[in-house]
Design goal:
Layout: E1 9-20, E2 23-34, E3 38-42, H1 49-56, E4 64-69, E5 72-73, H2 79-85, E6 87-89, H3 102-107, H4 118-123, H5 125-145, H6 161-174, E7 179-183, H7 191-206, E8 211-214, H8 218-224, E9 227-232, E10 235-240, H9 242-245, H10 249-256
Parallel strand pairs: 3-8, 3-9, 6-7, 7-8
Antiparallel strand pairs: 1-2, 1-4, 4-5, 9-10
Length: 258
């Protein structure tokens, strides 16, 4: 009998709970994200998706539960510390550095750059310059992949909504993330660019990048997600592949509306 091997979990959420007043926004949520996969987080409005994402990425402190990234407990750590650990997130409305150029947005993304230390910049100038050349080469590669290289000298604030989404994803990848968390990446994007973005995510997954994403477009979820977690009223209602979940009575009742 052949032995089937599954990717190891890179992100593990266990019994996460958060209340705002008397409202349980997150109610004992547990799931895992496997390395090199795309995991979708779906559910009706008010299901707790944003609360879970904010808790995982450190923007909301939880009352109880554990979030582990690559075996490290990151529960309730500050967002910048979680990002430095390798969990990079985007937002539903892109948060580009508007007054910097597209290329400058890319160049500030890598963590713990040698040039950030004035002392090291003085005594290790060659190393700093070598690292900067490496970052520049990586930035150019990503911008070319996302067809943003012709806009490299444009202020990021002047980009279209779809271009800002692409820049946010490219900038996330500059940080060499363990997990990329995407909050509604297709929101506000025209259908053609949404299809392109969908293709990028699938291609990056095939190259080993791990994604956790919130998405309302179920056809996109079914096309690119290896695993889907359905939330309802702050709790996990069901898990599985989208084509299976479409036939699940609880999911149909709570989310798909029959």
């Amino acid at each position: 009998m052949a032995i089937v091997s599954f990717p190891s979990s890179i992100l593990k959420v266990t019994n996460l709970a958060k209340s705002f007043g008397g409202v349980k926004a997150i109610n004992d949520v547990s799931f895992i994200v496997r390395e090199g996969t795309v995991t979708g987080l779906i559910g009706p409005n008010g299901a707790g998706k944003s609360s879970v994402v904010n808790a995982i990425s450190g923007f909301t402190r939880v009352d109880r539960g554990v979030v582990e990234l690559a075996g490290h407990d990151i529960t309730n750590q500050a967002p910048h510390r979680i990002a430095a650990r390798g969990l990079i997130r985007s937002f539903q409305i892109a948060r580009e550095l508007q007054k910097l150029t597209v290329l400058e947005n890319m160049m500030v993304a890598p963590f713990q750059q040698l040039g950030e230390s004035p002392w090291r910049a003085l005594i290790s100038r060659r190393a700093v310059m070598r690292e900067e050349r490496e970052h520049l080469a990586a930035a150019v590669d990503w911008l070319q992949m996302f067809n943003l290289f012709p806009l490299r000298d444009e202020y990021a604030g002047n980009l279209s909504g779809g271009q800002k989404k692409l820049l946010e994803l490219a900038r996330a990848l500059m940080a060499k993330p363990k997990v990329v968390l995407l909050d509604e990446p297709m929101a506000g994007v025209n259908p053609t660019l949404a299809k392109t973005l969908q293709g990028y995510i699938s291609r990056l997954r095939d190259q080993g990048v791990t994604f956790l994403l919130i998405e309302h477009n179920l056809s996109v979820v079914e096309a690119i997600c290896d695993h889907v977690v359905v939330l309802a009223e702050g709790a996990v209602l069901a898990e599985g592949q989208m084509n299976e979940l479409r036939e699940t009575e609880e999911v149909i009742s709570a989310y798909l509306g029959g």
